[in-house]
Amino acid sequence: MMASLVSESAILKAVVSTQSTGFTGRDVYGEEAEKIGLVNYCVEQNGDGNAAFVKSMEIATLLQDRGPVALRMAKKAITEGFEAGPVRAGLEVEHEAYMGVIPTTDRIEALMAFREKRKPNFKGE
Fold first, then answer.
1. Which of 25, 61, 68, 83 is least enclosed, having the fewest CB within 10 Å?
2. Most distant CA pair in the chain: distance in Å?
3. How far apart are the C-alpha atoms of 2 and 4, rounded to whole Å?
4. Residue 123: C-alpha distances to residues 18, 28, 49, 68 (Å)
5. What is the pLDDT of residues 64-110, one digit of tens each?
6. Which of 117, 68, 77 has the alpha carbon at shortest distance from 97?
7. HEC string of the chain?
8. ∠ CA 53-58-62 to the nearest 5 degrees?
9. What distance in Å separates the CA atoms of residue 5 and residue 34, rounded to the nearest whole number?
């Protein structure tokens, strides 16, 4: 359950840090932005000047093998869960998203692939 895994104090810290820099107009760069939760990753620039692109492609490569329906529902649960406010409302959004995964063929494929110890072949259905 995503909403229950993210502590409210961590969320509050990120919000307060973001508000603080927003209110003061102070610039925040790289490692500090990562530390306060403004960005997920801070990468050192490479010789080609495309370190951020390379990192994003690494993440995209990891995501390409995930079930598209499950990814859509996870995105929905996270986005709408945070917008919902209280943890209970967030859990309701997460439950709704999970229920959207239950009837899919991708879910059955994931379970079968796990049981058969093979890579799943997701269709987005």
1. 25
2. 55
3. 5
4. 39, 41, 36, 8
5. 888 888 888 888 877 776 666 666 776 777 788 888 888 898 889 88
6. 77
7. CHHHHCCHHHHHHHHHHHHHHHHHCCCCCHHHHHHCCCCCCCCCCCCCCCHHHHHHHHHHHHHHCCCHHHHHHHHHHHHHHHHHCCHHHHHHHHHHHHHHHCCCHHHHHHHHHHHHCCCCCCCCC
8. 145
9. 19
> Which residue is listed with tokens 């502590």?
7
Residue that has been written with the tokens 């917008």 in this structure? 83
Q: Which of 42, 20, 18, 21 is nearest to 30 (CA)?
A: 42
Global pTM exceeds 0.90: no
